[in-house]
Amino acid sequence: WVQRVTSSSAILRVEVDRPGAISVEAFAGREGAPAAGERRVITSADPRGLHAVTLEGLKPATRYTYSVRYGSSSKLAAFTTAPSDDATDYRFLVYGDNRTDEAAHAEVVRAMVPVASDFLIHTGDFVQNGASPAQWQTFFDIEAPLLGARCLFSCVGNHELTDGAGVEYARFFGPVDVPQPVAAKEARGKDAPAATRPEHLDGTFRWGNTRFFLLNGMVSFKGTADRAWLERALADADAEPGLGWRVVVVHHGPWSSGPHSGNARLHDAGIPQLLKAHKVDLVISGHDHIYERGWGDGLAYLVSGGGGAPVYPIKRGAPQARKTESVHHFVDVTVG
Q1: What is the pLDDT of residues 194-220, one digit of tens each?
Q2: How many helices (H) and strands (E) are present in the chain, helices listed first?
Q3: Dihedral of CA 95/154/196/221: which sign?
Q4: What whole-number distance in Å separates Cα of residue 38 and Cα of residue 41?
Q5: Residues facing 120 on adjacent strands
Q6: Is residue 196 within 8 Å of residue 75, measured between CB atoms?
Q7: Where are the beta strands (DSSP E) in 168-286?
Q8: Band of the pLDDT at 193, cuts 50, 70, 90?
Q9: Which one, of 44, 143, 97, lies nearest residue 327 by Cα?
Q10: What is the pTM of this model?
Q11: What three-state secondary structure class fits 196?
Q12: Which residues contact 198 (CB under 8 A, 6 or more apart)?
């Protein structure tokens, strides 16, 4: 699966059954028709279980096909790079809270596959127990038709933090690479990640004229490293050339008509006011297994937590809500 796609680079992650070397062949264009000079072969020679191969020097808004070889086995997949920063038209899909009900999760994925889009936004809670390798394997089995063709950007959910640090989530989808101290490697094997700190679970990326901020909403934002990171990232975006939109993605958002209601941590720390001051246009969240859209404290918001987990009843609508529905779903977003 592909991660951290930009207009000029991407990271390919490959997990294999037994530790071993892999090779990746990538080229612009579709299978069997590489563009002249665009073919490249990269080898990851370390005998490890999870590989990360970086592709650089790519062209914006270009389809790249790649083949991964491991021993006598190979798999073919593809992705599209981000457009140039002045691009104003693109499309992405939003979903989240897949956990618990594999059949419902698979139905949502089947509905998403034929919908053309540039990338995916996940609102968190991929699995019930974020420390369970077996549950992550099931997630990847179900998501294979999506992840083989599109990059998934995400925020961390509370169920990824079952171990208190989101270690497995950070391995697969973390917005930054986490250092691996020697002690952790000795204790858990060569590929064992370090125990992450929460601030390693925040990230940001740009797609066209939009800047996305991916937050860990399950921690305090009062005088913490997460707060400092967010203030710095928002301030940097204030001076970013050509930026047309700012979108925040956080698992437990400021407002919701579901049983979890709004995230008190964000309100106690004045985060909605901070986002408004930095001209954030939209807050996307999950956590409550419903669909909702609304307007709170001058911020448009969207709740999309219907990706497969049992849906929640809507007992009392939040005053900020414009529309709510208890339903499995994904959201198709067009930027123009």
Answers
A1: 444 555 799 999 999 999 999 999 999
A2: 7, 16
A3: negative
A4: 10
A5: 93, 152
A6: no
A7: 203-207, 210-215, 245-250, 282-285
A8: very low
A9: 97
A10: 0.91
A11: coil
A12: 165, 216, 218, 219, 224, 225, 226
